């Protein structure tokens, strides 16, 4: 039964349910379903591209968050990296053991440990940049430039609508 669901890319409504819950009479899968499918595809390709560097997509995400934000607790890093705090705790330990991040007590609160990238972490991200850019280029390859901008803006707008945070 699960195998049949894996083969069918379009979710089917439950018996007796409204067959088209989209209020705009949009045909085809819901946008949120397409976004999830895109996320899963990107994660699969990212994991494959990052494997030679010894990183997973989640680890790469955490490192890039630290690159842009620096000095974050594990809980803050978990929120910004879209993983549970328990998962981030394990990830932080692994990244620290590899010498990609270092942790120190937060200024003003010795109970909180903040993570920062090390020089090795910065160098690894720089080495990964071309393969990640190649994947982004592949994603956008068949999209005209004006649609690329609209696609990105639509994603940012949707994220802002759901989270209440402005992007741009």
From TrEMBL:
<keyword id="KW-0805">Transcription regulation</keyword>
<keyword id="KW-0804">Transcription</keyword>
<dbReference type="InterPro" id="IPR023187">
    <property type="entry name" value="Tscrpt_reg_MarR-type_CS"/>
</dbReference>
<feature type="domain" description="HTH marR-type">
    <location>
        <begin position="28"/>
        <end position="160"/>
    </location>
</feature>
<keyword id="KW-0238">DNA-binding</keyword>
<feature type="compositionally biased region" description="Basic and acidic residues">
    <location>
        <begin position="1"/>
        <end position="10"/>
    </location>
</feature>
<dbReference type="InterPro" id="IPR000835">
    <property type="entry name" value="HTH_MarR-typ"/>
</dbReference>
<protein>
    <submittedName>
        <fullName>MarR family transcriptional regulator</fullName>
    </submittedName>
</protein>
<dbReference type="Pfam" id="PF12802">
    <property type="entry name" value="MarR_2"/>
</dbReference>
<dbReference type="InterPro" id="IPR036390">
    <property type="entry name" value="WH_DNA-bd_sf"/>
</dbReference>
<feature type="region of interest" description="Disordered">
    <location>
        <begin position="1"/>
        <end position="28"/>
    </location>
</feature>
<dbReference type="InterPro" id="IPR036388">
    <property type="entry name" value="WH-like_DNA-bd_sf"/>
</dbReference>
């Amino acid at each position: 039964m699960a195998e049949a669901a894996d083969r069918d890319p379009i979710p089917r409504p439950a018996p007796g349910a409204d067959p088209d819950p989209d209020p705009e009479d949009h045909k085809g899968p819901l946008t949120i379903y397409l976004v999830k499918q895109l996320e899963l595809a990107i994660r699969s390709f990212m994991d494959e591209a990052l494997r030679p560097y010894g990183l997973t997509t989640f680890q790469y995400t955490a490192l890039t968050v630290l690159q842009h934000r620096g000095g974050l607790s594990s809980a803050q890093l978990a929120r910004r990296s879209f993983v549970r705090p328990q998962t981030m705790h394990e990830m932080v330990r692994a990244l620290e053991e590899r010498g990609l991040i270092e942790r120190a007590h937060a200024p003003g609160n010795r109970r909180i440990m903040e993570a920062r990238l090390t020089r090795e972490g910065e160098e690894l991200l720089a080495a990964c940049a071309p393969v990640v850019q190649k994947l982004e280029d592949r994603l956008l390859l068949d999209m005209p430039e004006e649609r690329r901008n609209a696609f990105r803006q639509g994603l940012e707008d949707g994220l802002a609508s759901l989270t209440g945070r402005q992007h741009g």
